[in-house]
From TrEMBL:
A GO molecular-function descriptor: glutamate dehydrogenase (NADP+) activity
Annotated ranges, domain Glutamate/phenylalanine/leucine/valine/L-tryptophan dehydrogenase C-terminal: 204-452
Complex formation: Homohexamer.
Full protein name: Glutamate dehydrogenase
Chain segments annotated as coiled-coil in the UniProt record: none
Keyword annotations: Oxidoreductase
PROSITE patterns: GLFV_DEHYDROGENASE
SMART domains the UniProt entry points to: ELFV_dehydrog
Entry-linked CDD domains: NAD_bind_2_Glu_DH (cd05313)
Length: 454
């Protein structure tokens, strides 16, 4: 049986076992095909059934969350925690609160997290959790009660050496605080069970900034290798959460010009460059819609999602040199990347998890003059810094912003080098999808072999 037939069989079995979870299948498809050259070279992975094992979560919990809204009515939601793989460290990965969350979404995220965490070189396994709850428009008290209900179940499955959650879409400093408070109340333990904590109670400096900063460090490495740099580049960014905001902030430091940001209502285009101060005020303090930006900066333009062409993400219409999707999964379609490319875009770096569809990735890889930084490698700075938070908690110490940022920078350089060198090793120099997937996978797979058939 050829490697492709072997992978096809695994994917067929996976589809049967996970009906309706196309998004999970998408994430696995991308990884498994890129592993073919490794599987061909190293028969041990097939012999020990690593692909069959690594695609099934070690453990998954589905639970009910009931909380009381401000009118006194019961509200019911689904919660999950997918503990995907613990071969190289305790389960680690964020919690997402968004109406689009279901078990398939969390399995795709948990699966990606295994290899991303492996790339960071910090000892962390892969996990993800969340709920089909929409924090948008909820009062602080509703958010608090929801977080408490969520943790009332989750606490029995986590511990600082077992599983360490963090934030993701819809879960920021406020939600982490409420969940940690409830964890402490239920367990009578104050430990590093969750990352992204407040700076006064165990959080790490630079954790909020880490994913965006890390993304820019990675991109600069990638462009440098191609004899290029971020200097003077017009960059389009989607999203306006912490990943987008701190990508924009860091891009300025490298001499680039970030010109767009977006949320679920539309995008803004500011040809003078996005004003980070305004963006932070709107999104971090006021939790306002992005359209408010143009009231404070009238020269900028707001385009509503209702004006997007069918099947398109309008933010990618803006001509740019480089694109940074930092919003959510499958936000760059084939039609989008074709428009970006035709308008002169020559690199794309993924801040969100799996923002590019499979055909978009194939398009990018087939253009010889295009550089593509895949999420697993490029956005690993967030979880890497969660790892640094765990180290500080374990040592009961606190590092300066400069120290954490310097370590983050070092980790991103290392992830780039490892991914690049691995792509070279397997005869497809510069294909960072192949390089990062193989590098991330190899370490996990070898640990699984060492630890026997469990
Ligand atoms: N949610 C982030 C990610 O996708 C961070 C997870 C963490 O810090 O554990 O990697």
């Amino acid at each position: 049986m050829s490697q492709t037939q072997y992978v096809n069989t695994i994917l067929e079995n996976l589809k049967f076992a996970n009906p309706g979870q196309d998004i999970f299948i998408q994430a696995v498809t991308e990884v498994l095909y890129s592993l073919e050259p490794l599987i061909a070279r190293e028969p041990k992975y097939k012999k020990h059934a690593i692909l069959e094992r690594v695609t099934i979560p070690e453990r998954a919990f589905h639970f009910r969350i009931t909380h009381i809204d401000d009118e006194g009515n019961p509200r019911v939601h689904n919660g999950w925690r997918i503990q995907f793989n613990s071969a190289i460290g305790p389960y680690k990965g964020g919690i997402r609160f968004h109406p689009s969350v279901n078990v398939g979404v969390l399995k795709f995220l948990g699966f990606e997290q295994i290899f991303k965490n492996s790339l960071t070189s910090v000892a962390m396994g892969g996990a993800k959790g969340g709920a089909d709850f929409d924090p948008k428009g909820k009062s602080d008290n509703e958010i608090m009660r929801f977080c408490q209900s969520f943790m009332s179940e989750l606490f029995r499955h986590i511990a600082h050496t077992t599983d360490v959650p963090a934030g993701d879409i819809g879960v920021g400093a406020r939600e982490i605080g409420y969940m940690f408070g409830q964890y402490k109340k239920l367990t009578n333990r104050f430990d590093g069970v969750i990352t992204g904590k407040g700076l006064g109670w165990g959080g790490s400096l630079a954790r909020t900034e880490a994913t965006g900063y890390g993304l820019v460090y990675f991109t600069q490495n990638m462009l440098k290798k191609a004899g290029n740099s971020l200097e003077g580049k017009k960059c389009s960014i989607s999203g306006s959460g912490n990943v987008a905001i701190y990508t924009i902030e860091k891009l300025y430091e490298f001499g680039a010009l970030p010109i767009t940001a977006s949320d679920s209502s539309g995008y803004i285009y500011d040809e003078q460059g996005i004003d980070v101060k305004i963006l932070k005020e709107l999104k971090e303090v006021k939790r306002a819609r992005i359209s408010e930006y143009v009231k404070l900066k009238p020269s900028a333009k707001f385009v509503s999602i209702n004006e997007y062409a069918p099947g398109r993400n309008g933010v990618w219409d803006v001509p740019c040199d480089g694109a940074f999707p930092c919003a959510t999964q499958n936000e760059v379609h084939l039609a989008d990347i074709k428009v970006l490319y035709a308008n002169g875009c020559r690199f794309l770096a993924e801040g969100a998890n799996m923002p590019s569809t499979l055909d978009t990735i194939n398009f990018m890889l087939s253009q010889k003059d295009f550089c593509f930084a895949p999420a697993k490698a490029a956005n690993a700075g967030g979880v890497a810094t969660s790892g640094l938070e765990m180290m500080q908690n374990a040592a009961m110490s606190k590092w300066s912003f400069e120290e954490v940022d310097a370590r983050l920078h070092g980790i991103m350089n290392h992830i780039f080098e490892t991914s690049y060198e691995t792509s070279k090793e397997f005869g497809d120099t510069g294909n960072l999808v192949l390089g990062s997937n193989i590098a991330g996978f190899r370490k996990v797979a070898d640990a699984m072999i060492d630890q026997g058939y469990v």
